[in-house]
Amino acid sequence: MVIAVLAALAADGLPEAALRYTSPATPFLHRPFQGDFPNSGVFDHRAPPPVNDHRQLTAWGVRTWGKAGHAGYDFPMREGTAVLAAAEGVVEEAGDVGPTNCGGRPVEHDIRVRLRHEVDGRAIHTAYLHLSSVVVKAGDRVAAGQVVAHSGNTGCSSGPHLHFGVFELNERGRPVAIDPYGWDADTPDPTLRLPLRHAEWMWLDGEAPLLFRPSGRSTADARGDVRITGFRGMGWQDGRYPNNEFVMVGVRTAGPRRVDLSGWRIRNRAGLVYTFPEGARVHRGEGLRVYSGTGVDGPDTLFWGRAAGVWNDEGDCVELIDARGDVVQVHHQGRREDDWCGTGAPSDGEPGPRPPRDGGW
Ligand SMILES: [Zn+2]
Question: Which residues of 308-328 are buried (b: 16+ CB within 10 A; e: fewer)?
């Protein structure tokens, strides 16, 4: 299958150089941190090369927003979070390469770590950017999972996060950016048309960080006692695994101990509606999650029952509607600062840009 796709692309003018980076490596990457963090930028698979339109193409073929041409993954996390070596290897670079010019904005510090790994005879690098401190030095040998640095907000960064990237040096010694999540859509990978881009799955079983967007924002205060308290829209392949998505509702702090949600509804921008089942209740201090996919309803977990995702990764609106039919809250998930998802007709055209999280790649 893969070979057939490549052959078709080659006949279609695929640069020969791109074919040199298609041999599958043995998965070798460990998660570069403990736990899960939301994701504010993905590896951009689009071709031709980036224009600065703040759009990215995910490894599963979905358009989303972020820094165009981004060659890694951004994980917002508190400054000082331990950053772990994704594999055993040798420290190529560790420390401050600043000052750095970020598109006219000078920043004093730009703290990075780059590790070199030997995998199946290939020299692969992992890069960790925007750090606050490093705990290794060039030449050190590190084990997988060893703490090599602490996360931060240095370099071209608009908020505390870790940028994680993978590279391989080609025959000319130029770094080829690799998407370690590979490519998992039905169409050919546009990255293959870019000579210094490549994609292949590199994570060990269970080690790939979850990819999901953090919650959006609510423009209007929820009326009444119940509000949307959490939302996860875009997730890794949520078209196939719709339970990567959820909406969480809760009772406001000064509200009643519990609220009966029988007949309440959740609606997306496309008009898909979920109705809370008879007897569904939410308790103060506890969240009630509505997952998009199928499952068995429980006291704090409900399932919409859809075979595919509900929420548009490009941006969507989560409306919470009470049993009387009143919209009590509108929650935005998207990029645009103005009210494109409000109560009126959806605006036409694409949602506008939102500042990228990161300028480092
Ligand atoms: Zn980044």
Answer: ebbbbbbbbbbbbbbeeeeeb
Residue 145 CA from chain centroid, whole number: 22
Residue type, position 316, single letter: D
Quick check: 164 and 208 in contact, CB under 8 A?
A: no
pLDDT in tens, 202-233: 999 999 998 887 666 765 556 789 999 888 88
Task: With respect to residue 341, please indicate whether it lies within any of the assigned structural domains.
Answer: no
CA 70 / ligand 1 centre spacing (Å)? 6
Is 359 within the bounds of a domain?
A: no
Q: Compute, in angstroms, the gap from residue 288 CA to the centroid of ligand 1.
A: 33
**162 and 257 belong to one structural domain:** no
Q: Which residue has the tokens 């290794």?
A: 136
* d(CA 163, ligand 1 centre) in Å: 4
Measure 218 CA to ligand 1 centroid, in angstroms. 26
- Please state, in angstroms and rounded to a whole number, the distance separating the CA atoms of residues 233 and 247: 8
**Tokens found for residue 131:** 């750090």
Ligand 1 midpoint to CA 361 (Å): 5
150-205 pLDDT, tens digit per residue, is: 999 999 998 999 999 999 988 888 899 999 999 988 899 998 888 888 899 999 99
Ligand 1 mean position, distance from CA 118 (Å): 24
Q: Which two tokens stand for residue 299?
A: 């006291």
Number of neighbouring beta carbons within 10 Å of residue 34? 12
CB atoms closer than 10 angstroms to residue 86: 29
State the distance from the centre of ligand 1 to the C-alpha of 82, rounded, in angstroms: 17
Residue 338's alpha-carbon distances to 41, 217, 296, 347, 351, in angstroms, are 21, 12, 38, 10, 9
The residue range of the domain holding 57 is 2-199
